[in-house]
Structure to design on (495 residues):
């Protein structure tokens, strides 16, 4: 049955909502969020992974529903995350008295799934929940269905991992903002709202409401908070951001509608420990690296190549320091390297289970073969683009099983860095990094989250004087800027 009037009245005021019949007792920081923001229309929830942001949002939705403010929820999340909401989190945390129906959007649903989706438009008193992957907003079909859903109901719209809509020119960002303009109650949620620069925050805030920042356009926002110069390389002319300004003003604006919580503030979790292991290039790597670098710089300075092609050359430089290079014909050439041996050295010094993150399929396969040779065929599971859904779940279960033979979890951080728990590991090795701060932080938190009882050590393998170091330097800079905008002390990370 639905909640009775007496129970509804318990939440008539935010300060009384903790008489509310939660399914699972909230932590103090979760209570604080609900007390301050439960009934606010536009909210940014900047909560670290592991602090229970999904719990907070589910209960926020339930309270709004009980109060009669909403009758539906649209959840927008990355492809690898949105089903976690419907399959795991909502059944786990939705208060028992709330009657709800839920459906996952698909561009080509089966007959049963199509019927389930259409049931969301039935005139009933239960809470209707639609979960969509953010990629759907890049399509007309997905955007149209989202509009139809929110127009049919009084909705709460949640964008989980909201940095997925940070790019102003991206169609999914624009369409998410358009759909959001039809909704009264909106939430964005992420642990890392700024992954590249303070400019990341604009579209996320634009989704909530243009009035929150009170700045008419992205370019006006850029002019206000960034130092921009006109520059050129060869025949290419473009505007370049060389620094940021007025970040205290930006932080003040954001704080009025945001709730920030870090794991250090609210959970008794073990510390993170960082270490760097330097790797020397082999003669073969050095030769290939120097030649590739000269070629890329020459082509770009002469205006022969585009910026996109130059980035491809940069990617190849990174592949070379990792021990391979993909040629123009698609062939992958393995180079003699010291990286695998240094990985084995790290493993030899450690006990227990280990996570190894690598950015390239070739490296994942090479690591797997090497570890199987050294530690046994059943010692390794992999998790990357080619891994099926069934095999991914099996890999997690085997790794998390204390009694299994599996000691190593080797994966791509873009694929395995979201929404999974790998707390059996207390050592995480980054065989390679990329420039995406969110991917780095999310992948770190697979081990460092609720359920972890040990300190977690992170080891980065880096080749001195190469693009390896530049990637880490870029990530370090992004963390410092993000901390400044959010009004936090700089985080201790890879110092």
């Amino acid at each position: 049955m639905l909640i009775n009037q007496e129970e509804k009245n318990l939440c008539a005021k935010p300060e009384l909502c903790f008489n509310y019949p939660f399914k699972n007792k909230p932590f103090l920081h979760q209570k604080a969020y609900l007390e301050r923001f439960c009934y606010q229309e536009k909210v940014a929830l900047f909560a670290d992974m592991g602090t229970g942001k999904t719990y907070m949002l589910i209960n926020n939705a339930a309270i709004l529903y009980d109060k009669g403010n909403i009758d539906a929820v649209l959840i927008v999340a990355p492809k690898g995350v949105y089903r976690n909401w419907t399959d795991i989190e909502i059944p786990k945390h939705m208060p028992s008295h709330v009657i709800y129906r839920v459906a996952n959007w698909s561009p080509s649903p089966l007959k049963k799934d199509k019927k389930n989706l259409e049931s969301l438009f039935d005139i009933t008193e239960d809470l209707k929940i639609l979960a969509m992957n953010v990629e759907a907003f890049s399509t007309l079909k997905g955007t149209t269905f989202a509009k139809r859903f929110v127009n049919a109901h009084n909705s709460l719209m949640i964008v989980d991992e909201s940095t997925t809509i940070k790019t102003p020119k991206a169609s999914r960002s624009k369409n998410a903002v358009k759909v959001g303009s039809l909704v009264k109650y909106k939430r964005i949620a992420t642990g890392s709202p700024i992954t590249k620069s303070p400019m990341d925050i604009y579209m996320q805030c634009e989704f909530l409401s243009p009035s929150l920042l009170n700045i008419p356009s992205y370019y006006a926002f850029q002019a206000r908070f960034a130092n921009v110069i006109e520059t050129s390389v060869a025949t290419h002319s473009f505007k370049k951001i060389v620094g940021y300004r007025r970040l205290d003003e930006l932080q003040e604006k954001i704080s009025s509608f945001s709730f920030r919580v870090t794991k250090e503030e609210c959970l008794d979790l073990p510390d993170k420990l960082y270490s760097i292991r330097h790797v020397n290039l082999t003669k073969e790597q050095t030769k290939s690296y120097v030649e590739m670098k000269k070629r890329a710089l020459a082509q770009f300075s002469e205006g022969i190549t585009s910026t996109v092609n130059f980035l491809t050359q940069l990617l190849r430089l990174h592949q070379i320091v990792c021990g391979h290079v993909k040629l123009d014909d698609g062939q992958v050439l393995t180079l003699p390297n010291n990286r695998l041996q240094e990985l084995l050295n790290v493993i030899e010094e450690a006990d227990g289970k280990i996570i190894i993150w690598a950015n390239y399929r070739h490296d994942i396969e090479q690591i797997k073969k090497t570890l199987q040779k050294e530690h046994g065929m059943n010692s390794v599971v992999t998790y990357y683009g080619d891994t099926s859904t069934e095999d991914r779940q099996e890999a997690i279960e085997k790794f998390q099983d204390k009694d299994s033979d599996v000691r190593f979890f080797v994966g791509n951080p873009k694929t395995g860095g979201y929404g999974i728990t790998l707390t059996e590991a207390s050592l995480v090795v980054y065989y390679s990094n990329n420039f995406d701060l969110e991917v780095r932080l999310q992948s770190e938190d697979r081990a460092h989250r609720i359920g972890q009882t040990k300190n977690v050590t992170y080891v980065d393998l880096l080749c001195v004087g190469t693009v390896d170091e530049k990637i880490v330097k870029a990530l370090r800079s992004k963390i410092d800027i993000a901390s400044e905008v959010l009004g936090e002390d700089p985080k201790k990370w890879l110092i």
Summary: Residues 123 and 152 are 10 Å apart (CA to CA). The longest strand covers residues 236-244.
